[in-house]
UniProtKB/TrEMBL annotation:
<keyword id="KW-0961">Cell wall biogenesis/degradation</keyword>
<dbReference type="InterPro" id="IPR015942">
    <property type="entry name" value="Asp/Glu/hydantoin_racemase"/>
</dbReference>
<feature type="active site" description="Proton donor/acceptor">
    <location>
        <position position="69"/>
    </location>
</feature>
<comment type="function">
    <text>Provides the (R)-glutamate required for cell wall biosynthesis.</text>
</comment>
<dbReference type="InterPro" id="IPR018187">
    <property type="entry name" value="Asp/Glu_racemase_AS_1"/>
</dbReference>
<dbReference type="GO" id="GO:0008360">
    <property type="term" value="P:regulation of cell shape"/>
</dbReference>
<comment type="pathway">
    <text>Cell wall biogenesis; peptidoglycan biosynthesis.</text>
</comment>
<keyword id="KW-0573">Peptidoglycan synthesis</keyword>
<comment type="similarity">
    <text>Belongs to the aspartate/glutamate racemases family.</text>
</comment>
<dbReference type="GO" id="GO:0008881">
    <property type="term" value="F:glutamate racemase activity"/>
</dbReference>
<dbReference type="GO" id="GO:0071555">
    <property type="term" value="P:cell wall organization"/>
</dbReference>
<feature type="binding site">
    <location>
        <begin position="6"/>
        <end position="7"/>
    </location>
    <ligand>
        <name>substrate</name>
    </ligand>
</feature>
<feature type="binding site">
    <location>
        <begin position="38"/>
        <end position="39"/>
    </location>
    <ligand>
        <name>substrate</name>
    </ligand>
</feature>
<dbReference type="InterPro" id="IPR001920">
    <property type="entry name" value="Asp/Glu_race"/>
</dbReference>
<feature type="binding site">
    <location>
        <begin position="70"/>
        <end position="71"/>
    </location>
    <ligand>
        <name>substrate</name>
    </ligand>
</feature>
<feature type="binding site">
    <location>
        <begin position="181"/>
        <end position="182"/>
    </location>
    <ligand>
        <name>substrate</name>
    </ligand>
</feature>
<dbReference type="InterPro" id="IPR033134">
    <property type="entry name" value="Asp/Glu_racemase_AS_2"/>
</dbReference>
Length: 259
Protein backbone atom coordinates (compact mmCIF):
# COMPACT_ATOMS: atom_id res chain seq x y z
CA UNK A 1 0.00 0.00 0.00
CA UNK A 2 1.15 3.52 -0.84
CA UNK A 3 0.64 5.94 2.06
CA UNK A 4 0.15 9.62 1.19
CA UNK A 5 -0.40 12.53 3.58
CA UNK A 6 -0.97 16.26 3.42
CA UNK A 7 -2.22 18.99 5.71
CA UNK A 8 -5.60 18.97 4.00
CA UNK A 9 -7.19 18.42 0.63
CA UNK A 10 -4.29 19.49 -1.58
CA UNK A 11 -2.44 16.19 -1.39
CA UNK A 12 -5.38 14.55 -3.14
CA UNK A 13 -3.88 16.03 -6.32
CA UNK A 14 -0.91 13.72 -5.67
CA UNK A 15 -3.18 10.79 -4.82
CA UNK A 16 -5.08 11.41 -8.06
CA UNK A 17 -1.87 11.55 -10.10
CA UNK A 18 -0.53 8.36 -8.46
CA UNK A 19 -3.88 6.66 -9.10
CA UNK A 20 -3.74 7.64 -12.77
CA UNK A 21 -0.11 6.57 -13.14
CA UNK A 22 -0.35 3.37 -11.06
CA UNK A 23 -4.04 2.43 -11.26
CA UNK A 24 -3.63 -1.06 -9.79
CA UNK A 25 -1.77 0.02 -6.64
CA UNK A 26 -3.53 0.33 -3.28
CA UNK A 27 -3.44 3.84 -1.81
CA UNK A 28 -4.29 5.23 1.62
CA UNK A 29 -4.53 9.01 1.95
CA UNK A 30 -4.48 11.02 5.16
CA UNK A 31 -5.59 14.64 5.11
CA UNK A 32 -4.83 16.35 8.43
CA UNK A 33 -7.78 18.69 8.03
CA UNK A 34 -8.14 19.34 11.76
CA UNK A 35 -4.73 21.06 11.81
CA UNK A 36 -4.56 22.61 8.35
CA UNK A 37 -2.85 24.73 7.12
CA UNK A 38 0.74 23.75 7.88
CA UNK A 39 2.22 26.72 6.03
CA UNK A 40 1.86 29.15 8.93
CA UNK A 41 3.19 26.73 11.58
CA UNK A 42 6.72 26.56 12.99
CA UNK A 43 9.13 23.97 11.63
CA UNK A 44 9.06 22.12 14.97
CA UNK A 45 5.29 21.77 14.82
CA UNK A 46 5.29 20.62 11.20
CA UNK A 47 7.90 17.95 12.00
CA UNK A 48 5.71 16.71 14.88
CA UNK A 49 2.65 16.51 12.62
CA UNK A 50 4.60 14.77 9.84
CA UNK A 51 5.89 12.10 12.21
CA UNK A 52 2.40 11.48 13.60
CA UNK A 53 0.89 11.25 10.12
CA UNK A 54 3.55 8.81 8.97
CA UNK A 55 3.10 6.65 12.04
CA UNK A 56 -0.64 6.40 11.33
CA UNK A 57 -0.08 5.40 7.70
CA UNK A 58 2.50 2.79 8.66
CA UNK A 59 0.08 1.28 11.19
CA UNK A 60 -2.49 1.00 8.41
CA UNK A 61 -0.07 -1.07 6.32
CA UNK A 62 1.65 1.52 4.12
CA UNK A 63 4.97 0.22 2.72
CA UNK A 64 6.10 3.53 1.23
CA UNK A 65 5.31 7.09 2.36
CA UNK A 66 4.62 10.07 0.13
CA UNK A 67 4.82 13.46 1.81
CA UNK A 68 2.30 15.20 -0.44
CA UNK A 69 2.85 18.50 1.32
CA UNK A 70 5.51 20.97 0.26
CA UNK A 71 5.69 22.52 3.72
CA UNK A 72 6.30 19.14 5.36
CA UNK A 73 8.67 18.11 2.57
CA UNK A 74 10.73 21.27 3.03
CA UNK A 75 11.21 21.00 6.81
CA UNK A 76 10.39 17.42 7.90
CA UNK A 77 11.65 15.08 5.17
CA UNK A 78 14.90 14.13 6.91
CA UNK A 79 13.16 13.61 10.27
CA UNK A 80 10.58 11.26 8.73
CA UNK A 81 13.20 9.35 6.74
CA UNK A 82 15.37 8.85 9.83
CA UNK A 83 12.46 7.79 12.07
CA UNK A 84 10.80 5.17 9.86
CA UNK A 85 12.09 2.09 8.07
CA UNK A 86 10.31 2.68 4.78
CA UNK A 87 11.04 4.51 1.52
CA UNK A 88 9.93 8.14 1.85
CA UNK A 89 9.13 10.39 -1.12
CA UNK A 90 8.79 14.15 -1.08
CA UNK A 91 7.26 16.40 -3.73
CA UNK A 92 10.02 18.98 -4.13
CA UNK A 93 12.82 17.16 -5.98
CA UNK A 94 10.56 15.88 -8.80
CA UNK A 95 9.17 19.37 -9.36
CA UNK A 96 12.67 20.87 -9.46
CA UNK A 97 13.82 18.30 -12.02
CA UNK A 98 10.76 18.95 -14.19
CA UNK A 99 11.29 22.73 -13.99
CA UNK A 100 14.94 22.49 -15.01
CA UNK A 101 13.98 20.35 -18.00
CA UNK A 102 11.23 22.78 -19.01
CA UNK A 103 13.02 26.12 -18.49
CA UNK A 104 14.45 27.70 -21.62
CA UNK A 105 16.57 30.41 -19.96
CA UNK A 106 16.77 29.39 -16.30
CA UNK A 107 14.26 32.00 -15.12
CA UNK A 108 12.17 29.99 -12.66
CA UNK A 109 9.40 31.18 -10.38
CA UNK A 110 8.18 29.39 -7.27
CA UNK A 111 4.94 29.94 -5.37
CA UNK A 112 4.21 28.23 -2.06
CA UNK A 113 3.24 28.67 1.56
CA UNK A 114 5.18 31.04 3.79
CA UNK A 115 6.98 28.11 5.44
CA UNK A 116 8.06 26.59 2.12
CA UNK A 117 9.26 29.88 0.68
CA UNK A 118 10.99 30.79 3.95
CA UNK A 119 12.91 27.50 3.89
CA UNK A 120 14.49 28.40 0.54
CA UNK A 121 14.50 24.71 -0.39
CA UNK A 122 13.51 25.22 -4.01
CA UNK A 123 16.14 27.87 -4.64
CA UNK A 124 18.83 25.70 -3.00
CA UNK A 125 17.94 22.65 -5.08
CA UNK A 126 17.69 24.58 -8.34
CA UNK A 127 20.96 26.46 -7.73
CA UNK A 128 22.73 23.19 -6.85
CA UNK A 129 21.87 21.87 -10.32
CA UNK A 130 21.97 25.14 -12.26
CA UNK A 131 24.07 27.78 -10.45
CA UNK A 132 23.26 30.51 -12.97
CA UNK A 133 19.50 30.08 -12.65
CA UNK A 134 17.40 33.04 -11.61
CA UNK A 135 14.95 31.82 -8.96
CA UNK A 136 12.14 34.14 -7.92
CA UNK A 137 9.82 33.08 -5.10
CA UNK A 138 6.51 34.40 -3.82
CA UNK A 139 4.55 33.24 -0.76
CA UNK A 140 0.83 32.84 -1.43
CA UNK A 141 -0.70 32.21 2.03
CA UNK A 142 -4.34 32.75 1.03
CA UNK A 143 -4.48 30.10 -1.69
CA UNK A 144 -4.63 27.06 0.63
CA UNK A 145 -7.70 28.28 2.58
CA UNK A 146 -9.37 29.32 -0.69
CA UNK A 147 -8.92 25.80 -2.08
CA UNK A 148 -10.03 24.22 1.20
CA UNK A 149 -13.19 26.35 1.08
CA UNK A 150 -13.85 25.38 -2.53
CA UNK A 151 -13.57 28.97 -3.79
CA UNK A 152 -12.16 27.79 -7.10
CA UNK A 153 -14.17 29.96 -9.48
CA UNK A 154 -14.79 33.01 -7.31
CA UNK A 155 -13.72 36.40 -8.74
CA UNK A 156 -11.99 37.13 -5.42
CA UNK A 157 -9.74 34.10 -5.94
CA UNK A 158 -8.83 35.26 -9.45
CA UNK A 159 -7.93 38.72 -8.11
CA UNK A 160 -5.74 37.26 -5.35
CA UNK A 161 -3.93 34.93 -7.76
CA UNK A 162 -3.27 37.84 -10.13
CA UNK A 163 -1.85 39.94 -7.28
CA UNK A 164 0.42 37.13 -6.05
CA UNK A 165 1.75 36.42 -9.55
CA UNK A 166 2.37 40.03 -10.59
CA UNK A 167 5.92 40.25 -9.10
CA UNK A 168 6.87 37.05 -10.93
CA UNK A 169 5.48 38.33 -14.23
CA UNK A 170 7.67 41.42 -13.94
CA UNK A 171 10.69 39.11 -13.55
CA UNK A 172 9.82 37.52 -16.91
CA UNK A 173 10.04 33.96 -15.68
CA UNK A 174 9.62 31.19 -18.24
CA UNK A 175 8.73 28.41 -15.79
CA UNK A 176 6.59 28.42 -12.64
CA UNK A 177 6.68 25.71 -9.97
CA UNK A 178 3.45 25.17 -8.06
CA UNK A 179 5.23 24.67 -4.73
CA UNK A 180 2.15 23.49 -2.84
CA UNK A 181 -0.01 20.49 -3.64
CA UNK A 182 -3.15 22.59 -3.18
CA UNK A 183 -2.18 24.80 -6.10
CA UNK A 184 -2.78 22.31 -8.96
CA UNK A 185 -6.48 22.67 -8.13
CA UNK A 186 -6.09 26.25 -9.41
CA UNK A 187 -3.71 25.34 -12.24
CA UNK A 188 -5.90 26.61 -15.08
CA UNK A 189 -6.46 29.94 -13.34
CA UNK A 190 -2.76 30.27 -12.50
CA UNK A 191 -1.84 29.51 -16.13
CA UNK A 192 -4.19 32.22 -17.38
CA UNK A 193 -2.84 34.82 -14.97
CA UNK A 194 0.86 34.05 -15.46
CA UNK A 195 0.53 33.83 -19.25
CA UNK A 196 0.60 31.03 -21.81
CA UNK A 197 4.32 31.43 -22.48
CA UNK A 198 5.19 30.31 -18.94
CA UNK A 199 5.43 26.55 -18.36
CA UNK A 200 3.56 25.65 -15.16
CA UNK A 201 5.03 22.69 -13.25
CA UNK A 202 2.58 20.54 -11.31
CA UNK A 203 4.44 18.83 -8.45
CA UNK A 204 1.71 16.18 -8.21
CA UNK A 205 2.31 14.88 -11.72
CA UNK A 206 6.09 15.04 -11.32
CA UNK A 207 5.92 13.12 -8.04
CA UNK A 208 3.71 10.38 -9.49
CA UNK A 209 6.20 9.82 -12.31
CA UNK A 210 9.07 9.66 -9.79
CA UNK A 211 7.27 7.02 -7.70
CA UNK A 212 6.47 4.96 -10.80
CA UNK A 213 10.13 5.03 -11.89
CA UNK A 214 11.27 3.93 -8.43
CA UNK A 215 8.88 0.98 -8.39
CA UNK A 216 9.98 -0.03 -11.89
CA UNK A 217 13.62 0.04 -10.81
CA UNK A 218 12.91 -1.80 -7.53
CA UNK A 219 10.72 -4.86 -8.24
CA UNK A 220 11.18 -6.18 -4.69
CA UNK A 221 9.61 -3.01 -3.31
CA UNK A 222 6.84 -3.09 -5.92
CA UNK A 223 6.03 -6.68 -4.97
CA UNK A 224 5.25 -5.59 -1.39
CA UNK A 225 2.47 -3.24 -2.50
CA UNK A 226 -1.14 -4.33 -2.90
CA UNK A 227 -2.56 -4.49 -6.43
CA UNK A 228 -6.32 -4.23 -5.86
CA UNK A 229 -6.55 -0.62 -6.98
CA UNK A 230 -8.19 0.53 -3.73
CA UNK A 231 -8.22 4.10 -2.44
CA UNK A 232 -8.90 4.90 1.24
CA UNK A 233 -9.34 8.56 2.14
CA UNK A 234 -8.89 9.37 5.83
CA UNK A 235 -9.19 12.80 7.45
CA UNK A 236 -8.68 14.14 10.96
CA UNK A 237 -11.81 16.30 10.61
CA UNK A 238 -14.55 15.74 8.04
CA UNK A 239 -16.64 18.59 6.66
CA UNK A 240 -19.24 18.72 3.91
CA UNK A 241 -17.00 21.12 1.97
CA UNK A 242 -14.13 18.64 2.08
CA UNK A 243 -16.40 15.90 0.71
CA UNK A 244 -17.62 18.12 -2.12
CA UNK A 245 -14.18 19.40 -3.14
CA UNK A 246 -12.52 15.98 -2.78
CA UNK A 247 -15.07 14.21 -4.96
CA UNK A 248 -14.70 16.93 -7.58
CA UNK A 249 -10.93 16.50 -7.49
CA UNK A 250 -10.91 12.71 -7.66
CA UNK A 251 -13.80 12.46 -10.15
CA UNK A 252 -15.17 9.52 -8.17
CA UNK A 253 -17.69 8.87 -5.41
CA UNK A 254 -15.17 7.99 -2.72
CA UNK A 255 -16.09 7.37 0.92
CA UNK A 256 -14.30 9.07 3.80
CA UNK A 257 -13.04 7.92 7.21
CA UNK A 258 -12.52 10.20 10.20
CA UNK A 259 -9.42 9.18 12.18
Amino acid sequence: MIGIFDSGIGGLTVARAVKQTLPRRDIIYLGDTARTPYGNKTAKTVVKYALENTEFLMRQGAKIIVMACNTASSVAFEAVREEFDAPVFEVISPAVEAALEASRKGAIGVIGTRATIRSGVYEKMIKARLPDAGVHSAPCPLLVPLVEEGWLKKPETAMIVKKYLHPLKTRQIDTLILGCTHYPVLKDLIQRKIGKRVRVIDSAESSARSIARTLEENPDLAARLGKNGTLRVCVSDLTEQFKKTARGLLKMNVSFETV
